[in-house]
Design goal:
The complex is a heterodimer of chains A (335) and B (290). Chain A has 335 residues and is α+β, with helices and mostly antiparallel strands. Chain A has two domains: 229 residues, Rossmann fold; 96 residues, Nucleic acid-binding proteins (OB fold (Dihydrolipoamide Acetyltransferase, E2P)). Helices cover 27% and strands 33% of the residues of chain A. In chain A, a hairpin with a 5-residue loop joins β18 and β19. The longest helix of chain A has 18 residues. Chain B is mainly α. Helices cover 73% and strands 1% of the residues of chain B. In chain B, α1 crosses α13 and α2 crosses α13. The longest helix of chain B is centred in the N-terminal third of the chain and has 33 residues. Chain B is globular. Classes of the chains: A alpha+beta (335), B mainly alpha (290). At the A-B interface, β6 and α2 of A face α9 and α10 of B. Chain B: Belongs to the binding-protein-dependent transport system permease family.
């Protein structure tokens, strides 16, 4: 069981309020991703849940019990650190067994649990090695193994993939998602990478400056961002924001349109633009254009596009994909 | 040194210093070995003659040799234990964010800058003196009899003084090692349910193993030749109670003017130091290969 509930959780360092007060519900078995730019307080929030930082105010309920003043080990949570934080002088086996040993488990129980975790994570052949003799991906798996054996109420991941190279990152992403489907344990995952958030999460929590901007399923955030910040943060390449006459026509301060929701034509359209840079990826083409009177925009066109610098094009937004924002950046309903 | 030409240049350029250093070491060593096979006493000049290993036989069968060997090992061992254990404890304390940490660190390091002779005089005259020393004064406040340190516990006194001198070195090395311990590792151990004591023995101490090795090796080199503290305070006595190998060689050469015997003693000391070094490297040197 691992339902976690945060009630008015507050954290200050001196006079600086890093987290001014967060309320959040995490259901048992859910994969929740905290996402936000660096310095938004997502790691601090995770460390508060873990118990590695003391809350200034508020409650952290795990399965209904307030654990805000409990020691980290008493909360029944496991954490995977960004640096992996493996114990360098211990073998992989002892790294994984350490938590069980501290809990006073018998040798047989430890051995059985370590072996089964090693099997899940393909580490059986490496149990006698030290972390120094492992590759990045293997170290990552040892860190996960150390978390698994304690059979926690929830797993906490602090940017676990940011030290891996791109190809390995995609692999580990799938492995962690697979692990979640297998274990069905609550997982809280911190990342600054919105792709990881979109692909892995059941529920995304978007944070900025210690505040929760929006909570929802990945596609909810993509389709109905609550404000300009979420709209700009979720989705890649970034949403285009346009003001001026075009926005006035939609009765709002600014409109947002995603690069993939713009139709490209060489003859006619709503917005006239000049191509600055074209990135040809084969399956799709990214056009960085200068729209007349509107400034720079990004367009994501499917397939190959024989366009280059200085080409004149016309863009037409999909009408039902236009997001409208008021002067404070809050989203307005459909016009 | 990637090309043959640059390797050659490198060798030629470094040759002078290597040659000078080699002569600097080899000539005195060779002379000492040569003297150790001579009857060579400054009180009877011009009588030098080859006597083979007789100097060694005298030195090694001298009861003073065994007493000073035991004293040397006891001194080195005790100081190592005190400085390593004390260094870890002080290092842990100075690693905490306590009030006045900067000044405290400076004070802890200070004894290392005091020369051994001054150190010994301070301890002898200001602290351990049975009449005017501070320890005697404290004892009198408590109504206890004053301890005559250098008469009743001479070797212990030397050990205390030398430990005081070398503790800062251990603290310095161990503190820097402590500061390089990854905070994440401690937090991971915390999450794994380890308390402060378990974290110390399972995480901190293994992390320090390399630094401890360095402290032991370097201190051993210097502690085998402790001389000034003994010379200034006890003069090797009472009897032979505080005579170590280095001091024994000194008495041979400069009190008995027996250059041959002293040379033999010096060579024996060199051999002993090498035995200790081999032993230490075997025992703990593997910590350095990580």
């Amino acid at each position: 069981m691992g339902a976690i509930r945060l009630e008015k959780v507050k954290k200050s360092f001196g006079t600086l309020d890093v987290i001014p007060g967060v309320d959040l519900d995490i259901n048992d078995g859910e994969f929740v991703v905290f996402v936000g730019p660096s310095g938004c307080g997502k790691s601090t929030l995770l460390r508060l849940i873990a118990g590695l930082e003391d809350v200034t105010d508020g409650k952290i309920l795990i399965d209904g019990t307030d654990v805000a003043n409990e020691a980290p080990a008493k909360r029944g949570l496991s954490m995977v650190f960004q640096s992996y934080a493996l114990y360098p002088h211990m073998t992989v086996y002892n790294n994984i067994a350490f938590g069980l040993k501290m809990a006073g488990e018998s040798k047989d129980v430890i051995d059985q649990k370590v072996q089964s975790a090693a099997k899940i994570l393909n580490l059986t052949d490496y149990l006698e090695r030290r972390p120094g003799a492992l590759s990045g991906g293997q170290r990552q798996r040892v860190a996960i193994g150390r978390a698994i054996v304690r059979n926690p109420a929830a797993f906490l991941f602090d940017e676990p993939l940011s030290n891996l190279d791109a190809a390995l990152r995609v692999n580990m992403r799938l492995e962690i998602t697979g692990l979640h489907q297998e274990l069905k344990t609550t997982m809280i995952y911190v990342t600054h990478d919105q792709v990881e958030a979109m692909t892995m999460a059941d529920k995304i929590v978007v944070l900025q400056a210690g505040r929760v901007e929006q909570v929802g399923k990945p596609m909810e955030l993509y389709n109905n961002p609550a404000n300009k910040f979420v709209a700009g943060f979720i989705g890649s390449p970034k949403m285009n924001f346009l003001g001026g006459e075009l926005a006035a026509k939609h009765n709002c301060h600014e409109i947002g349109i995603r690069p993939e929701h713009l139709a490209v034509s060489t003859e006619s359209g709503v917005i006239a633009a000049t191509v600055k840079i074209a990135e040809h990826l084969g399956a799709e083409t990214y056009l960085h254009v200068e729209a007349d009177g509107l400034g720079p925009m990004t367009v994501r066109a499917t397939g190959e596009m024989p366009l280059g610098e200085h080409d004149k094009i016309f863009l037409t937004p999909e009408q039902d994909r236009i997001h409208r924002f008021d002067a404070h950046g809050l989203a307005l309903g459909a016009s | 040194m990637s090309t043959r030409a640059s390797t050659l240049t490198g060798r030629i350029m470094s040759a002078p210093s290597i040659i000078v250093l080699f002569l600097w070491m080899a000539v005195p060593l060779g002379m000492t070995i040569y003297f150790s096979f001579l009857r060579y006493n400054l009180l009877s000049p011009g009588m030098e003659e080859w006597i083979g290993t007789l100097n060694y036989e005298f030195f090694l069968t001298d009861p003073a040799f065994f007493a000073s060997l035991a004293n040397t090992l006891l001194l080195v061992g005790s100081v190592l234990v005190i400085t390593v254990v004390g260094g870890i404890l002080l290092g842990l304390m100075l690693d905490q964010p306590i009030f006045g940490r900067g000044i405290l660190r400076l004070l802890v390091i200070a004894p290392f800058f005091i020369m051994p002779t001054v150190n010994a005089l301070v301890w002898k005259n200001l602290l351990m003196d049975p009449v005017s020393g501070m320890f005697a004064w404290i004892a009198s406040l408590l109504g206890l009899p004053a301890i005559d340190w250098f008469t009743n516990a001479p070797l212990t006194s030397i050990i205390i003084m030398v430990s005081w001198q070398w503790l800062p070195f251990a603290v310095l090395i161990l503190l820097t090692a402590l500061q390089s311990l990854d905070r994440d590792q401690k937090e991971a151990a915390q999450m794994d349910g380890a308390g402060p004591v378990a974290i110390f023995f399972y995480i901190t101490l293994p992390h320090l193993s390399r630094a401890i090795t360095v402290v032991i090796l370097i201190e051993t080199i210097f502690l085998l030749t402790v001389f000034a503290e003994i010379f200034v305070t006890t003069g090797g006595g009472p009897g032979l109670a505080t005579t170590n190998i280095a001091f024994l060689v000194y008495t041979q050469a400069l009190l008995q003017f027996d250059v041959g015997g002293a040379s033999a003693g010096g060579i024996v000391a060199v051999i002993l130091a090498n035995i200790v070094a081999i032993f230490l490297i075997r025992l703990i040197g593997k910590n350095l290969d990580k």
